[in-house]
Each structure stands twice: as structure tokens, then as C-alpha cells.
Amino acid sequence: MAIAKAERLMNLALCLLGTRRPLSKRELRDSIEAYVETVRPGSGAAGRPGGSAAGADDAFNRMFERDKDDLRELGLVIETVESLDGEVGYLARRDSNRLPPITLDAEEAAALGLAAKVWQQARLAGAASGALQKLRAAGLPEDVDPYEAHGALEPRIPVHEAAFEPLMLACRDRRPVGFDYRKATAARPEPRHVEPWALECWRGHWYLAGFDRDRGAERVFRLSRITGRVRTRGGRYVAPVPDVVTVRETVASWAGEIADRTARIRLRSGSGYPLRAKATSVRELGDGWDELEIPYGHGLDAWLVEFGPDVVVLEPAELRADVVDRLRAVAKG
User: Fold this and answer.
1) Contact 61, 45 (CB under 8 A)
2) Cα angle vertex 114, ends 112, 120, to 5°?
3) How far are the Cα atoms of 67, 75, 106, 134, 136 from residue 110, in angstroms, in the given order?
4) What residues contact 149, with CB distance under 8 A and at least 6 apart?
5) Model pLDDT for residues 263-319, shown as the tens digit of each residue
6) CA torsion sign, 186 to 190 to 193 to 199?
7) CB 71 within 8 A of CB 91
8) For helices 106-118 and 122-138, what crossing angle results, to 10°?
């Protein structure tokens, strides 16, 4: 009789929690009865009589990867460790999976409940729902509605990029990744190998902050410019991970939020409200144009390009040149 999935997940969790050293897939397959069934002679791939050994191995690999992802989704911290001979092993350290007692007052629980409800996208709806259930168990009263005081508001964080979910999981599990990235000034994407730190949302756009192994320095990547599939890499991080505050400051700097100069631009009347909100001065020029002075920091050229023909950079000259280069790259496709 096939072992129920819940029992299989429990056995896998106990194996990973009970070991003092990483266990390979082979060792886990030989230790858990449900996995033994997939490779037992005569059972075949996915339980089909007469199946090949290769088919059985494929069935086990698919089952194991699903089970591992399910346990991580449930909150179990599973580490991936590569040995000196290149073999990959897995373990769940007890100190990483032991939580102190959770005590929340009504306001704290309501705030966390509201934060969980912000995520309404399908990719995160399951995780947010599970988080709310855990908050209920931790003290969030059943009659507390996070929207009760703000019934007309429903905060949301848009997530449209396909790269968001795999990068979020890679940040959580501290796994290096590879992906193809197209800079605004480049006609074609280039491969990048990154140790992801955190995802941050600025001006409605998602950014990944991390350590770029190819360039040996920290970098920030806009998710909308990632093309193709995000690929997970083996091995550990080689660069230290900064604290959350430092990561946010890095994203703010690369996204143009930190400015030490000013730029002068022409902006078409009735357009570019975000630019107008940042302006330190606005002067009407007539003929449907205004002149603005705005803070100038890293990333301003990429932001100005988004407004297309509604913006003309007057000065400084290097900013004007950067915007022209980006527009030419876009025109080339």
C-alpha cells in the first residue's frame, strides 16, 4: 500500500532533523520506505510494472524535489551542502528550526495580519494564507479584521515578473543563482551569476540586491530586465551578506533614491507626475512644456527613459548622454 504523502513528508523531515551531517539523495532514498517503493525492482517508474531503472530514478527525483519544496513551504529550513567530492547533501539543523514562544498583542497581530493580506497575487496567495493561519494560532483573534479601520483601502504589492518567485526562494534558502540580464543600454542580455541577498520594491518596480560573482562586487538588478529562467546553482556564498538596512540603502542608491546633485529637464505639461513630485523647482516655459530641477543620483537616466518623448534632459551633459544611449538601445530592440 502506498504511503500517504503526509507520512512521507513527516519521515523526510525527521530524517533531515535527526542527522548531524548532510544526507545525500541516495541515503534518503534508501532510508524512507516511500522512496524505496519508487526504485524497487519490478515496481517501475511511478509504480508502473516493468519500468526501467532510469524511469524509477526520475520518478524518485521528481518526488523528492516536490517533497523538499513542500517542507520548505511549511517553514522547515533545509540546507543544501556540497561536499569536497562534489556530492550534494541535505540537512535541517535543529537550531535553525527552533522558534521561541510567540507572544503577540492585538495590535502586533493585526499589523502582521495586514502585511500577510497585502500579498494577493496567485504566486504568493498560498503562503500568505498559511501565514495568516499561523498568526491565528499565535494570538490573532478571529474577529480582528486588518481592514476594519481602513475599509476603503486594500493595499497590494504587484508582482508580475516570473523571476520573482524563484529569486524569493533563493534569497530565503541562500542559494546562488544564474540568469540572463539585459541592461537598459544593451541590445542583448548577458549571463549573470549572483548570490541573492534580498528583493526590494521601489517606485512600483522590483529589484534584486546581491553579490555579482562575475564582477566581484554588489549589484542591483531590476526583475523586469531578467530574461528566461532563473537557474539555481550549487555551493555556498563566498561574500558576506549585509544586514537588511544596508541592502535597502544599496537598492535605494542604485534605484536613484540617493542624490547628491540636481538635474535640469524639460517636461511636457500635464505629464510625468512622479517627476513633478520630486522636483525642487518648476517653471512654465509655454508651448506645452515646463522646466524642472530634480535630484540627480544613480539610476536617474533609467527612470527618465521610462517617460519617453515627454522628457528632454537639459543638463548635466553626462546625464543627457546616458539617456540618449539608453533610448538608442531601446530603438535597436
Assistant:
1) no
2) 120
3) 32, 21, 6, 13, 10
4) none
5) 999 999 988 888 898 899 999 998 999 999 998 877 788 788 888 899 999 999 999
6) positive
7) no
8) 170
